[in-house]
Write a structure and sequence with these properties.
By secondary structure, the chain is mainly β. It has helices spanning 260-267, 270-281, and strands spanning 6-8, 14-17, 30-33, 36-39, 56-68, 73-84, 91-94, 99-105, 108-109, 111-115, 118-122, 132-141, 146-147, 153-159, 162-166, 186-195, 199-201, 205-212, 215-226, 234-236, 238-244, 250-256, 288-294, 301-304. It has a domain at 24-235: Immunoglobulin-like. It comes from Streptomyces capoamus.
Length: 305
């Protein structure tokens, strides 16, 4: 299945459908070095040659993020569980901007350097082919979206009450270190802490939320592997609607009050749309569905994820 396409919004409204889309998983290439193998700084995409990386396959991302809507500062810890597809002396992650303070591989400190959008990691020991390893990256900063060749922005886009996060095709690297090509799909856990009164919406199922010391933490889990550009962590003041369809699909809709009237008739059709697509393509493969309808003048498009 081809990646979902952007659709221009008639109003200055950003719409993010939080239904994951399946994309074929392949492995990236590697580049040999004199003393071993270095993962390639790109997955060979003809349009975005530096998106994604070679030499490993990410199985799971565990993202713990804190966002201050006033200063727009993001503090993050990303834990990536991956399998080496070749013997690796070093490998790359995609990360644009942001300040990296520490990197470990299997709980052992690793050296790292920045090269444009590449975070180049050199573990203390060679990673043998077939080995599963865990990379932890601590980072912080003010995320900024990337501008695509068509002039649109994607990634972490600030709004007046939080942030709208839509990653297609290369926006994931604006807010977490990633193997940023749809060839490499993975499962996700999100722990998102935001000021009290804001809602943080990610992929999959909401496991729980709690408020303490003026901040609320939301925990989300997406167990089915998905392409990195589908990941979101949209933050704002939302009216939340939750229900379960007749087929047992959990629906979570988050709507900015300024867009509620226009969004209501569209969101009402979601169960019928899911039922129709299930008849056409087969049973819906995920546990959850839903949408985020945000007031985001700097976005101006809808993204189906």
């Amino acid at each position: 299945m081809t990646p979902p396409s952007r659709q221009p919004a008639r109003r200055r409204t950003a719409v993010l459908a939080t239904v994951p889309v399946a994309v074929a998983a392949l492995l990236g290439a590697t580049a040999p070095t004199a003393d071993g193998t270095a993962g390639a700084p790109g997955a060979g995409d003809p349009y975005f040659p530096l998106s994604g990386n070679g030499g490993y396959d990410v199985r799971h991302y565990d993202l713990t993020l804190g966002y201050d809507t006033g200063s727009r500062r993001l503090d993050g810890t990303a834990v990536l569980t991956a399998r080496a597809t070749r013997e690796l002396t070093r490998f790359d992650l995609d990360l644009k901007g942001l300040t990296v303070t520490a990197v470990t591989v299997d709980r052992t400190g690793a050296s790292f350097r920045r090269d444009g959008q590449e975070l180049v990691v050199t573990p203390r020991h060679i990673l043998r082919a077939g080995r599963t390893f865990r990379v932890t990256v601590a980072y912080h900063g003010t995320p900024k979206p990337v501008t695509d060749p068509d002039g649109s922005a994607d990634g972490w886009i600030p709004t007046d009450d939080g942030a709208f996060v839509a990653g297609e095709p290369q926006g994931a690297m604006t807010w977490f270190p990633v193997n940023g090509h749809p060839k490499d799909k993975a499962a996700y856990d999100f722990t998102l802490t935001v000021p009290k009164g804001r809602t943080a919406v990610a992929n999959g199922v909401l496991l729980g939320q709690h408020t303490a010391h003026g901040r609320t933490t939301f925990r989300w889990r997406q167990t089915r592997p998905m392409a990195a550009y589908l990941a979101t962590a949209t933050i704002g003041r939302f009216r939340v609607e939750r229900y379960t369809t007749r087929d047992g699909i959990q629906v979570y809709n988050a709507v900015d009050a300024r867009e509620a009237r226009a969004a209501a008739p569209v969101l009402k059709q979601l169960p019928a749309v899911l039922a129709w697509e299930s008849k056409l393509f087969g049973p819906y493969p995920f546990r959850a569905a839903g949408a985020v309808v945000d007031h985001a003048p700097d976005v101006g498009y809808a993204l189906e994820t």
